[in-house]
Amino acid sequence: MRVRALLIVVAAALVAIGPVPTRAGAAALLDAAAGLAPWITSVRRELHKIPELIFEEHKTSAALKKHLDDLKIPYKQYAKTGIVGRVGSGQPTVVLRSDIDALPINEPEGLEFKSQHEGRMHACGHDGGSCAAAQPRN
User: Fold this and answer.
1) Domain count within the chain
2) Any signal peptide, and if so, which residues (predicted)?
3) Residue 108: which domain range?
4) Per-residue pLDDT tens over the stretch 30-58
C-alpha cells in the first residue's frame, strides 16, 4: 500500500511539471509510474536495512548518491549527509523533499529487509520518501 501511495505522489509531481494531461494521458502516466513499483520497492528495502540517526546518515547518503549517479541526475552535497539533486530546468519548479534519518528503536523480527543496525529503525517512513524522491525518470 505504501508503494501505491508513493506512486500517486510521484505521478502528481510529474503532472505538476507538465501540461495537464487528458484522461488517457493521466492513465498512461499512472501506468508508467506503476512500472516503477519494483524499483521503488527494491530501493526502499535497501534503505530500510541501513537506518542511521540524524547527522550520521553516511551509508544512506552514499546509497542515494549511487542511485542518482546511475540515473545521471546531478546533485550537490550539503551539511555532510544532505543531497540536493536537480532534474530539468525552467518553470514551474517542483521540489521533492525527503528526510533520511531513522529512529533509535529496535525493529521487530520477521522482515527479510530488517534493519542491519541494532537499535535503529526506519519506523517513520523516511526510507519510502527517499526512494520516491530518487525514482527514475524517462
Assistant:
1) 1
2) 1-24
3) 2-133
4) 777 778 778 888 888 888 889 999 889 99
Structural domain contains residue 138:
no
In the chain, DSSP assigns E strands to 75-78, 82-85
- Determine the Cα–Cα distance for residues 3 and 54; give it in Å rounded to an integer: 24
CA-to-CA distance for 28 and 54, rounded, in angstroms?
38
In whole angstroms, what is the distance from residue 13 CA to residue 49 CA?
A: 27
- Check whether the bond before 92 is cis (ω within 30° of 0): yes
* CATH code of 70's domain: 3.40.630.10
Q: Which amino acid does the sequence have at 88?
A: G
Q: What is the value of pTM for the model shown? A: 0.70
Q: Which amino acid would we find at residue 4?
A: R
Cis amide linkage into residue 38, ω under 30° from 0: no
In a domain, 114, yes or no: yes
Give the type of residue at 32: A
Whether the CB-CB separation of 114 and 49 falls below 8 Å is answered with yes
Domain membership of residue 45 (yes or no) is yes
